[in-house]
Every structure is written in structure tokens, then in C-alpha cells.
Write a sequence for this structure.
């Protein structure tokens, strides 16, 4: 297209001069130039015009609130008739937060250990399932994929209810089974009041919901590994375990990195699955995680400043992980992100 | 040829291996589907509460569903969820498609910065957004309004939608667009008659995902909606659950009503979404 354009441009004025007086020959190049300028302007502005609505929404509803939450964390915010009043208090909320025993003894350990357990189990189970799917024939792979998708699609709220029902004291399936096996006395055992069983159940719930993403992403990675690599490994006498660690893992390391980081981000900010569980909505401070703690401070105790400070802490934690994530993406040689 | 026979020999060869594979498949199916089965079978069980460890329900009844609709007002909740989800779909699809075309098709300054920003906002915890947005919405008197909730959900679903659609737009060959220009089409004409039909499957998949985001969301709906006539389905169950903490039949019936549409949508859409997801998640 471009070469033909320059050809016309070059020959245009001459042809016009000699042949037709009626045709506005000199106007031709100028309109052409104007058109070119207009096109360049369109090239420059069109992407921004296309982006503008989305960016405005994101700025107004995600970025602006983030700035606000930072501001709120430096204030004592009180709700009064006709609006809230904020009094600047500096870093008081952060000082209170970082010196509170609750944060160091309960909230942070709950958040971090829970996230580590969930990520570890999610990745391990997801990888095992991906390896399994990779070995199955078409029909069984389809059946298993649909089952995995069903687990993935289970909404966080209803999924949590089902797990609560399964572990419900007295009437729940697992309470009855454990009682029948003589492990517990179903009449007196409540798994939701203690920190460890509470988070064990939450972990099962989150892993059940989270491993499908890992399985399907890792499977996509597995399918890209050339079969010849495994044949070579087998010829060299490597067993399945060695083939996995020496061939599979190094070849699709970027995939593992990405699913690990994404799972870490998701599992650090788990809220609904904890909040909905018995005692999770604030009545049992032993099971607070950072998100629930922030929510309770703000909405149950009406201390918006302290809640915001905890929320900012969580955001900073996640931001640190996110930066690692983005650097990983770039290091993967994604030159045209 | 030889590769195929080799893998075949590997998977179909020894009976021990096949048995192991079968056991693994069975374990996987039980772990993934048992909660779903337990939910649905409890919802239909006339003696849901005293079910204990009976694997099969004691019978089939629709009593729990009737109770949920007649006394639990669940029809309203489902309708609210559908309205919010519908509004989210429409706006998110339109906005994300435009944005995705911009980042997939044009090279401009700060393009990478925009993409990184989209990645970063995806990581923001909802707990950090819910406090300032609650205050903001209260100041605008948009609490307890389906519109206010929809606006939040549009913002929440945009980053993922843009990221996924960008993958779909990239798969449309540029030559197709250029052909349209040569035929004298303007940009809007090209968009309408060439790009849109080609991206449509991806757009549908992404929209359904936005719908699921809105349908499942709990924190904002729980915080913003204080009048029970404005509850979405996810919050409606929570309410139900709090009032009758032991009425597992109705709770599972309402959970089934919330879960089953999402599952069907999700399974149908996943193949379409797969390519975009892979482009977004694996390759960045």
C-alpha cells in the first residue's frame, strides 16, 4: 500500500499540470499531507480513545479507593450524620497495629501459614492431576477435565457451606464417620472452634477450589514438551521420578513460577471462605486472618482507620509478591508484553 | 509412529499400572465431585438434617426448594444477582473489548505501563477496596443500590477481561484487517464487520466469566446491601444460614440454585476461554 502511495504522490502534481487545468493540482499534495497528518493523529489518539472508558472506570473504582484507603489509614474516621469526619493522626494506627500482640501471635501467623499450606498443596495436587491427565486417553481426560472444572466453578460461598456441612458437629458426614471410627466424640467435638482444625478445613476448601487452575495450566505446559526429550531420558535409563525432576520441571519452569506466584497472591487474600465459616465473622478472634481482621476493625468496630491500616499492610504484602510476578513474566522473554 | 506405540505400551502395558491409573482417576473424581454430590443430594433429601453418614438420600423431595422460594424470598435474590450480573456483562464486555483492541493492535507510548497497571490492579485485595468504596458509595447515596454494586463489579471484572480478550484479539490476523482497509472500509466499519465477528467467541466467553465474577461475589454485596430486598443470592444464603443455623436442607437447596448455573456456564465456556487464559496466564 505504501509504495503505491508515494508513486501517486510523486506523479500527481506533474500529471495534473500538464493534462487538466480544471483539476486543482497543487491542492492534491497538501490534502494528502493533511490526510497523512490526520492519519498520524488518529494513530496516536485512537488507542487512548479506546482505552479511556476502561481506564476511567479502573482509576475511579480501583486506584482512587487505594489512595483513599492509604489516606484513611492515617486518620481517625468517624461516621456522623450527613457524612464522615476524618482527623489526621499520623502513623498511630500503624504503630498500634505493629505493636499489637494479636497481629503477631494470631493474624499474621494465620495468614502466612495458611497461605503457605494452601499454595504448597495446591501446586502439588495440581501438578499430580496434570501428570495424570497427560497420561489418560481422550475420553477419560474429558471426563476428568469436566470434574475438575466443576470443582473450579463452585462459588466460594456455596463451596464453603458444603464443607461446613460436611464437618458440622454432630450431624456432619465427617463428624459421624470420625465418631463411628472412634476418633472423636461427635456430641462434644466442634472442629470450628479451634484454630488448627478450623484452618485445616479452610485449607481443604481452598485447595479444592484452587488446584483446577494449576492442573489445567500445568497440563497446557506439559503438552508443549517434545516427546523426544522423554525418549532420550528413557534411553539413558532415567526412571519416572528422575524424568519428572530432570526434564519436566526445568522445561516448564516458567509455568510453575507463574502458577505459584498467582496462587500465593490469591491465597494471601482469602476472605470469603474464612468469613463465612462458623466463628469466622469476628466472633472468634483466634481465627482472624489479615483480611478478616481488617474488615472486622472497619465494619464491626467502626474503626475505619485501623481497618485501613491493616488493609494497607495486606496490599503492600501482595504488591511485593506481584512485583516478583511481573519480573518473572518479563524474564520469560516476553519482549512484546 | 514409534513414539505412539511406545506411549501406548507404557500406559496400556502392565495391569498394575492400569490399576494405579484407575485408582488415581477414581480418587480425583471423588475429591472433585463429592462436595457437589453432597450438596445436591442434601438439597433433595427429605430428612436432610438427620442424614448423618448415609451416602444415599433417604428420598427425593422438592420441599426445601419450595421453602427457600416461599419463605426465604430466594426468587428476589436470584433476580437481583441476575440484574447485577447482566449489567456487569454489558458494560464489562464493551469496555474491555475496546481496551483490549487498543493494547493488542496499537503501539503507543506507555502501552507497557498500561498493561502492567492492569496486571497490578488485579492483585489488589478486595478488603482494601471495600472500606473506601463503602464510604464513597455512602457519600453518593449508592449503598443498597443494585447500580452501585454493578459499577463496582464492572471495575472488578475489567482487568481480567482486558487481559483475556487481548489474547483473542491478537489471534485475529492483521492481514484480515488490512484487507478490509484496502476494500475501503473505515476503522469503525472494519471493527463492526471484521474484527467483532472474529472476536465474538472470545467476547462471549469473557463476558460469561464477568457474569460469574458478579454472581459469586460476596464481600461487596454483603457490605453494601443492607435491605433484605436488595440481597444478591450469595448474601441471601448467608442470611438464611444465620437465621436457621441448622436448616441444612434449605441452605443446600439455595446453594444448589446458585452453583448449578455457574457450573454449566463454566464447563461450556472453558474451552473457548482456554486459549485466552493460556495466553494470559502462561505467556503473560
Amino acid at each position: 500500500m505504501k509504495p503505491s502511495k508515494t508513486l501517486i504522490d510523486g506523479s500527481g502534481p506533474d500529471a495534473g499540470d500538464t493534462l487538466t487545468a480544471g483539476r486543482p493540482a497543487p491542492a492534491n499534495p497538501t490534502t494528502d499531507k493533511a490526510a497523512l497528518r490526520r492519519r498520524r493523529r488518529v494513530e496516536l489518539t485512537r488507542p487512548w480513545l479506546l482505552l479511556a472508558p476502561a481506564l476511567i472506570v479502573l482509576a475511579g473504582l480501583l486506584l482512587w479507593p487505594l489512595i483513599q484507603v492509604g489516606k484513611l489509614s492515617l486518620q481517625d474516621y468517624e461516621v456522623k450524620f450527613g457524612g464522615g469526619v476524618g482527623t489526621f493522626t499520623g502513623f498511630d494506627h500503624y504503630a498500634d497495629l505493629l505493636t499489637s500482640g494479636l497481629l503477631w501471635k494470631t493474624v499474621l501467623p494465620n495468614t502466612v501459614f495458611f497461605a503457605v499450606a494452601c499454595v504448597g498443596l495446591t501446586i502439588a495436587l495440581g501438578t499430580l492431576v496434570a501428570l495424570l491427565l497427560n497420561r489418560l486417553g481422550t475420553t477419560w481426560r474429558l471426563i476428568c477435565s469436566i470434574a475438575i472444572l466443576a470443582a473450579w466453578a463452585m462459588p466460594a460461598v456455596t463451596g464453603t457451606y458444603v464443607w461446613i456441612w460436611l464437618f458440622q458437629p454432630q450431624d456432619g458426614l465427617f463428624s459421624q464417620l470420625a465418631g463411628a471410627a472412634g476418633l472423636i466424640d461427635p456430641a462434644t467435638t466442634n472442629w470450628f472452634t479451634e484454630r488448627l482444625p478450623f484452618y485445616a478445613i479452610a485449607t481443604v476448601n481452598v485447595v479444592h477450589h484452587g488446584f483446577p487452575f494449576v492442573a489445567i495450566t500445568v497440563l497446557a505446559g506439559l503438552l508443549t514438551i517434545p516427546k523426544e526429550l522423554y525418549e532420550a531420558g528413557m534411553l539413558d535409563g532415567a526412571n519416572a521420578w528422575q524424568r519428572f525432576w530432570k526434564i519436566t520441571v526445568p522445561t516448564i519452569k516458567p509455568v510453575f513460577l507463574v502458577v505459584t506466584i498467582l496462587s500465593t497472591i490469591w491465597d494471601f487474600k482469602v476472605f470469603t471462605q474464612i468469613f463465612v465459616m462458623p466463628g469466622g465473622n469476628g466472633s472468634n478472634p483466634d481465627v482472624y486472618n489479615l483480611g478478616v481482621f481488617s474488615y472486622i476493625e472497619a465494619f464491626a468496630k467502626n474503626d475505619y482507620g485501623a481497618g485501613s491500616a491493616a488493609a494497607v499492610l495486606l496490599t503492600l504484602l501482595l504488591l511485593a509478591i506481584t512485583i516478583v510476578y511481573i519480573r518473572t513474566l518479563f524474564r520469560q522473554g516476553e519482549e512484546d508484553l | 509412529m514409534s513414539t505412539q506405540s511406545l506411549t501406548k505400551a507404557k500406559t496400556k502395558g502392565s495391569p498394575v499400572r492400569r490399576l494405579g491409573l484407575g485408582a488415581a482417576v477414581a480418587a480425583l473424581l471423588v475429591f472433585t465431585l463429592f462436595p457437589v454430590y453432597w450438596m445436591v443430594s442434601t438439597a433433595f433429601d427429605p430428612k436432610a438434617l438427620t442424614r448423618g453418614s448415609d451416602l444415599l438420600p433417604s428420598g427425593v423431595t422438592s420441599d426445601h426448594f419450595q421453602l427457600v422460594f416461599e419463605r426465604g424470598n430466594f426468587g428476589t435474590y436470584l433476580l437481583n444477582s441476575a440484574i447485577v450480573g447482566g449489567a456487569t456483562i454489558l458494560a464489562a464486555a464493551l469496555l474491555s473489548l475496546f481496551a483490549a483492541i487498543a493494547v493488542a493492535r496499537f503501539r503507543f507510548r506507555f502501552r507497557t505501563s498500561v498493561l502492567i497497571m492492569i496486571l497490578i490492579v488485579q492483585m489488589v485485595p478486595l478488603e482494601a477496596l471495600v472500606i473506601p468504596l463503602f464510604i464513597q458509595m455512602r457519600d453518593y447515596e449508592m449503598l443498597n443500590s443494585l447500580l452501585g454494586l454493578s459499577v463496582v463489579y464492572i471495575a472488578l471484572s475489567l482487568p481480567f477481561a482486558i487481559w483475556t480478550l487481548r489474547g483473542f484479539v491478537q489471534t485475529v490476523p492483521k492481514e484480515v484487517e488490512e484487507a478490509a482497509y484496502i476494500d475501503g472500509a473505515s476503522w469503525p466499519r472494519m471493527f463492526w464487520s471484521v474484527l467483532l465477528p472474529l472476536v465474538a467467541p472470545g467476547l462471549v466467553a469473557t463476558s460469561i466469566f464477568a457474569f460469574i465474577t458478579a454472581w459469586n461475589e460476596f464481600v461487596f454485596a454483603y457490605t453494601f446491601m443492607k435491605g433484605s430486598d436488595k440481597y444478591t443470592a450469595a448474601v441471601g444464603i448467608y442470611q438464611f444460614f444465620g437465621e436457621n443455623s441448622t436448616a441444612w436442607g434449605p441452605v443446600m437447596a439455595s446453594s444448589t440454585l446458585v452453583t448449578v448455573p455457574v457450573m454449566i456456564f463454566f464447563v461450556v465456556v472453558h474451552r473457548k476461554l482456554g486459549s485466552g487464559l493460556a495466553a494470559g496466564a502462561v505467556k503473560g
Notes: Residues 248-281 of chain B form the longest helix (34 residues).
